[in-house]
Amino acid sequence: MGYTFVFDMDQTLVDYDKVKKEIVLNTKIIELLRKIQEGRFTGITDAVFLYTNNPDEKYVYTVEGVIEDEIPGFKFDDMMWAKDERRSSYRIYKEVNPPKLLEDIETMLDDKNILKDAAYLKNNVFFFDDIPTHYIRSEIKDGNYIHIYPPFTTITEPDEEIYKPVYDVLKGGAMRGGVSRKKKKKRTKNRGTKKSRRRG
Length: 200
Fold this sequence. Notes:
Distance between the termini: 17 Å
Organism: viral metagenome
Radius of gyration: 16 Å
Largest sheet: 5 strands, parallel
CATH superfamily: HAD superfamily/HAD-like
Number of helices: 6
Structural class: alpha/beta
Region (Disordered): 175-200
CATH architecture: 3-Layer(aba) Sandwich
Low-confidence stretches: 176-200
Order of helices and strands: EEEHEHEHHEHEEHE
CATH class: Alpha Beta
Protein name: FCP1 homology domain-containing protein
CATH topology: Rossmann fold
Oligomer: single chain
């Protein structure tokens, strides 16, 4: 059984240089993403998601493009932003800064047709964020919440030791058992919009 890696965006993956007017990447996470990408071929990586409270959908896709420039062929399996209608906290309550919840990760896994159970969600999801207090921290295994500290900016870089638990997992290989995938059913309508972001 492999793992799902979920990344916040602002001050985790990137910062914006207002002087140069350009996106600056957290090089330590880019290095980690290269290893995670390699893990797709060894069974370690089940999925890689971007999960942000940034409301700007266009900017989210721009960031993905900048990352792909550094890692050719890289794509997030799914991306969820603040105003994504799949987030119940936004769809129902229109919260502008919705809580980050494990149920949203489950939604993205569902859209990727990965069959998961409660044990997988708790033990096999790694979450990266510069904010240490998101609710999801209480929902996943202790140690799988990677607090990016200090927050990544154009002038500060987090201690690379915080990524060690993830590198240990990547070196150790996938757990036995594999991940079941649901059989895809024929659909009568196109569901491949940007918002659904469904990739097999």
